[in-house]
Fold this protein.
Amino acid sequence: MLIILTGFMGVGKTTVGRILANKLGVPFVDMDYYIEARQGQTIAEIFDQIGESGFRLIEYQVLRELLEAEENGRMVISTGGGIVETTECRQLLVQQDQVFYLQDTFETSWQRINRGGLIQNDRPLVNANSKKQMAAKYERRIPLYEEASNYRLDVRRMAAHETAEVIRKMC
């Protein structure tokens, strides 16, 4: 089974994905880490060198590669929060059967990515945008996540292991 997790940055896609893959006994791929390993650069370095549009092209290529190469459909993939910004990525996601949109409030996601005011340097969009601008990105992406996913999970009141268990039972 191929399971893909989408949602805004800080929603818990990576944590949930690791737990879920472990429960299912299948490989787990975090697309951001995969891209960093493949490119030999951090996401921030990629953004610095080729900008967001260049990164989105790499993200599309990697998603396509993963979907084509996944071993008999047995994998959990955690996408980057902005994957839905690219029409071609959304088109690939729509063709899949198990795409889960993990939704939390912007404030909760902001607290996680901002870590109490200490913005992480590895999130170039956070470094380049104010909280208000990030909130606008969050709102703009909601319909894109909904378009690209088969399932929407409100994870506001669920721990990561609970979210993983809900998804496991749905698959």
